[in-house]
Amino acid sequence: MAATKTYLTGIQTSGMPHLGNYYGAIQPALAAAESNDTLYFLADYHSLNSVKEPARLREDVRSVAATWLACGLDPERTVLYRQSGVPEVFELATVLASVTAKGLMNRAHAYKAARDRNEAAGSTELDAGINMGLFNYPILMAADILLMEADVVPVGRDQAQHIEYTADIARAFNHLYGDAYSFPVPEGAYPQGEGSVLPGVDGRKMSKSYDNHIPLFMAENRLKKLVRRIPTDSTPVAEPKDPDSSVPFQLLAYFADAERTDGVRKRLEAGGMGWGELKNELFDTINDRFGPMRERYEQLVAPGSELDDILEAGAARARGRAAATMAKVRRAIGID
Ligand code: ADP
Ligand code: TRP
Fold first, then answer.
1. Where residue 83 sits, what CATH number does that domain have?
2. 161 CB under 6 A from ligand 2?
3. Could you tell me which PANTHER family the record lists for this protein (predicted)?
4. Both 151 and 291 in a single domain?
5. Neighbours of 169 (CB within 10 A)
6. Which of 85, 136, 145, 131 is nearest to 108 (CA)?
7. Maximum CA pair distance of the chain?
């Protein structure tokens, strides 16, 4: 049997996750947890760079944690914690900064994009409005990963550069201190294939930044309204329709079983189903699938639920691993 690998991923805490996040990130991460050592954490200090409202930051962290638990994350099996609950992350970030070339950070996509926006706006100061948290973001992320000696980091493709930077930073450390201690050099695991991007209500990739998303646990009546408002053309009920060019059908195909999807496909093609009925079918499918999880979600986000204890127990386990790594790192660098 192959040795079990350590999987680690950080979850941005920006509002309630949507169906695309479920399909592209949550579901595969829960599947990976069945047969691997897994650590999943809420990247609250990364969120601090963009969220400056304390109440919202607090609420987002609880909402995202409750979502993962409601979707089936088993906190006995997976270490679920808040980044801020593991202070060793910040200690390691300082150590890593000392072996990281500033030029590497200058070339980071997120930082460059912020400078390009300033340039496009005609600003003479290209760093205007850019905080050091954004500049240091890749180093903090490398610390998250290396601290837990992760082997595999499942993330979206947009994060590939961050994983490459983490590997570069690990190699730089290992080159200097490898006689005493070496970090495992991690690799990214990215979603495969064309079918991995769920469309939003306007047909583009579902994303919070396009505001075309369906939040996982929105209230039933609001979900119904949102599904009914998905744009469709004016083909009459009795006319044949092309299921594959219809957003409600594409979404249905992700969440209904093969038999149900096939039945709907045949009726649309034969001209026996209108868009309204298709949307009712989509609403029922989403509601049947996520309704029970929504109830659990609501219990967990309520103040005083067991959520805070679960996160604290996860942080205690994560700190145990962090302390072991930091003892080796400190000895290797001569600060012990
Ligand atoms: P958003 O685009 O809404 O801001 P994020 O970029 O925070 O979402 O994505 C978080 C995770 O969810 C990533 O792993 C990403 O690959 C996945 N994801 C986001 N949107 C989709 C989608 N439409 N289809 C599949 N996976 C998605
Ligand atoms: N940057 C990641 C994102 O935007 C979140 C993140 C922070 C992360 N630290 C991490 C992901 C460590 C994987 C490993 O999605």
1. 3.40.50.620
2. no
3. TRYPTOPHAN--TRNA LIGASE, MITOCHONDRIAL
4. no
5. 25
6. 136
7. 77
* Joined tokens for residue 105: 């950070």
Same domain flag for 131 and 237 = no
* Mean pLDDT, range 241-262, rounded to an integer: 95
Residue ranges making up the domain that contains 273: 217-298
**Per-residue pLDDT tens for 256-303?**
999 999 999 999 999 989 999 999 999 999 999 999 999 999 999 999
Q: How far apart are CA 103 and CA 50, in angstroms?
A: 23
Q: Does the beta carbon of 136 lie inside 6 Å of ligand 2?
A: no
What CATH number does residue 245 fall under? 1.10.240.10
Within 8 A by CB and 6+ apart from 112, the residues are: 106
Distances (CA, A) of 159 to 86, 163, 187, 188, 316: 22, 7, 12, 9, 27
Phi, psi values for residue 50, rounded to 5°:
-110, -25
Decide: 205 and 195 in contact? Cβ < 8 Å.
no
Q: Is 104 in the pocket of ligand 1 (CB under 6 A)?
A: no
Length of the chain, please? Answer: 336
Instruction: Choose which residue among 7, 8, 9 to substitute to test ligand 2 binding: the one with the highest number of ligand atoms within 8 A of its C-beta.
Output: 9
Q: Are residues 224 and 165 in the same domain?
A: no
**Residue 21 Cα to ligand 1 middle (Å):** 5
Q: Return d(Cα 279, Cα 285) in angstroms, integer.
A: 10
- Give me the residues paired with residue 53 across strands: none
* 134 located within any domain: yes
Task: Take residue 43 and report the two structure tokens written for it.
Answer: 């990247």
Nearest partner of 12 among 1, 23, 26, 2, judged by Cα: 26
The predicted-structure confidence for 17-37, as pLDDT tens digits, reads as follows 999 999 989 999 999 999 999
How far is CA 238 from its chain centroid? Answer: 42
Tell me, yes or no, if the pTM score tops 0.85.
Answer: yes
d(CA 115, CA 122): 11
